[in-house]
Amino acid sequence: MTSDHIRKMFTLLFVAGFFLFLFGPLITMGLTAFNSSEFPRVTPWECFTVEWFDVLRQDQRLMQGIKTSFFIGIGVVFVAVPLGLAGALLLTQVPDRTRPWYYTILISPILVPGVVLGISTLIFWDRMGQMFFGDSVFYNGYFLTILGQSTFISAYTMLIFIARLQRFDPALEEAALDLGATHVQTFRKVLLPFLKPAIGSAAVLAFLASFENYNTTVFTVVSEATLTTVLVSKVRYGINPSISALAVVIILITLIGACYYELVKRRELRAIDNAKRVAGGGASVVQRRFFAEPAAWLILLVFVVGLGTAFVAGTTGVDECKVEVKEQKRVQTEARIKALNERRAKEEASAENDSVSPAEPRTRAKGTENFNSIFQKDNLEGQMDSSKSDESSDKPARKGTENFNSMFDQGNLQGEESEAETRPEPEPKSRKGTENFNNIFDPGNLNQPDAK
Amino acid sequence: MNWLRTFFRRNGTPLAIFLLCSVLFWMFMMIILPQLFMVDFSLRANVPPPQWGTDTHSYTLEHYKYIVYGSSTSTDQFNTLDMGVFLRTLVAAIFVTLIDLILCYPIAYYLAHVARGGWGRLMVLSLIVPFWINEILRAFSFKVLFGTTGIINNFLVGIGFLDQPYDFIRNDIALWAGLTYAYILLMIFPIYNSVESLDRNQIDAARDLGSPWWRIHWRVVIPHAKPGISSGCTMVFMLTAGALAAPSILGGPSSLWFTQIIYQGFNQASNWARGSAYAIILLLTCIVFVLVVMKVFKVRLGEIAR
Fold first, then answer.
1. Is the Cβ–Cβ distance between B238 and A111 less than 8 Å?
2. Residue B114 maps to which CATH number?
């Protein structure tokens, strides 16, 4: 019994871990889209903002890339769907002996690396142009990319059509022909309506596969730039959270699509149930129209309210918060510069001490010891040692280093973040931030080098 | 000829012409001839496009020699850089495939046979969401996660596990994690589909007959899931070895992926011939891998590409 429990626990943990692995990165990336920090990160959290969506909207290169990707995607749909359909229809009619070859050749692009497909398309059409026209007439990003991508996307669509055709009853076709329909009529009135759902899903799949392809596109796109090539160059050379904002948009679209798909599926199931009930002599339940579905409204409501809240929260008080963060940063850097200057002054002073009174080795040693240890981890303990030897002159020095230490302390920064996350009121944050740095001007602190 | 006549009679002339033309175009102009041209191209000297097909565009093996011996001006006997990258890519791809398999098999089994009803369907549906996020954005999310100021480093430093941020990107950990993540769903869906079609009674029968859980998996579930496993492994291996976006985003400054060398041949070095020679080496590697998988798992190609 207990071992069974342990195994169940272990399984649940594994599943939870797997889903965390699956969604953790996406959630983190989504959160960075709302942080005002220039670099995409969650910690330290600065201000909740939606400005990165605006930056995304105004990014000309990215928008141009999306447009190019869109047109290429449409082109791929118009090439890959007919090719896949033809491939699937012909599959049942080729002689039995050649069928395995036929199938292997048409399927092979799926298993060929996308890089290879891109290169071969580029070289082939370029050489064709050289051969027949003596010029690179086919050296066009749209043309090459649509063909290169269609090479393997047609194989995807063909698989969809094959799956659908397996459920087609050839007797229907024969009946139509017997009743005097022409071949074209049979194809248009019998086969195509049957294949309609498959055509729809093949088109969607082809468009999406084209839209997110990179490996083939990067070779065939030549001088154009699609969404993916723009994204890669952006991500490689300097990144900002507007890319996370794009990811949020895509995730939202996917979520809406998934919800829609689930609703449609449920309606289909209910329709089948209904048909069964009617066939069994029961009363028919009238199916509501899609937009009368309560679940659809609920999902829509959740999305609208969520987006609205995000928008309101991300636009109000952002500027104030940013000013706050900026001020905090300014104070921080100022303090750092002060500390640096001070250290330099002290070093100079100790150097002067050196030249003036080289006969006092004890003081000099002490002086350098103090300043060197400012950035050392265990300087407090080190200080304790020296304090044993000379109590009176050491006290201010200890105080000084303490202040600088706490400035670079991890816990110090983290305390601020957690506060910022839970309570966005600016007052306690700034007070805490300046508290440490005020002490820099502590008279004891400044007097220290003169004490000698 | 006889077949052609029946074909035309059966489909009617317009449809028959459409079918033949499109399939022939696809088969020859898009699949077979481009590949043959690429092979031909890789066997020729590297000359600018206007001279293609002229006498200077002569046949040579120099590009294939290059990967083994390197350039003639270098002092090294072998081209250790390119071969090293090639081997590292292969080893990494195999490891990523194995990690994905180990992660996905239990999940696929769980989703297919343990989690049932609405909850199970919700989980399967939720798998689709990361699948439709662009590969580049997924790599980007790992860059955010593993960066020096990323959430993982902040956490590890925060709990005192590390003194200072660890450079995950320079040490290729981010790349491996990102690749494991990028293609994990191409492993899970085929395995899920094949495991799901297993009759539950077989598992119950094995259990009633006193078989321990690991033997049920070894003797009942895994043999049934073989097509799915081989399909998943092939897809993940191919895509990992042929990945270009994730390595260029997540790879450290000093580490290269084999596809990046190919890409350099086309863009920076502008030596298309060498680039295509390397692409053919990649293609051959992948073909060998598919053949090995088909042999080991005793499956046909049609079962893999589904």
1. yes
2. 1.10.3720.10
Question: What does chain B come to in residues?
Answer: 306
ipTM of this complex prediction, to 2 decimal places: 0.87
Q: Name the residue with tokens 């890789």.
A: B42
Tokens of B269: 């070095």
Query: How far apart, in Å, are the Cα atoms of A351 and each of A339, A357, A360, A368, B105?
Result: 18, 10, 12, 10, 69
Domains and CATH numbers, chain A: 52-272+287-315 (1.10.3720.10), 318-451 (no CATH)
And the tokens for A84?
């896949």
Token representation of residue B289: 């891998």
Average pLDDT over residues A340-360: 72
More confident residue, A395 or A87: A87
What is the rounded distance in angstroms from the CA atom of residue A1 to the CA atom of residue A14? 20
* Single-letter code of the amino acid located at A393: S
Q: Chain A, 334-373: which have a CB under 8 Å from a chain B CB?
A: none
Question: For residue B214, what are the domain limits?
Answer: 81-304
**B170 vs chain A: nearest CA distance in angstroms?**
14
Q: What is the pLDDT of residues A225-263, one digit of tens each?
A: 888 888 888 887 767 888 888 888 888 887 787 777 777
Contact residues on chain A for B53, CB-CB shorter than 8 A: 127, 130-131
Confidence grade of residue B304 (pLDDT, cut at 50, 70, 90): low
Copy the structure tokens of residue A67. 């447009």
The mean pLDDT value for A204-221 works out to 89
Please report whether residue B24 resides in a domain. Answer: no
Please report how many Cα atoms fall inside a 13 Å half-sphere around the Cα of residue B42, on the Cβ side. Answer: 26
- B236 pLDDT above the threshold of 70: yes
Crossing angle of helices A60-91 and B13-24, in 10° steps, is: 120
Q: How many angstroms separate the CA of residue A330 from the nearest CA in chain B?
A: 20
Q: Tally the domains of chain B.
A: 1
d(C-alpha B57, C-alpha B53), whole Å:
6
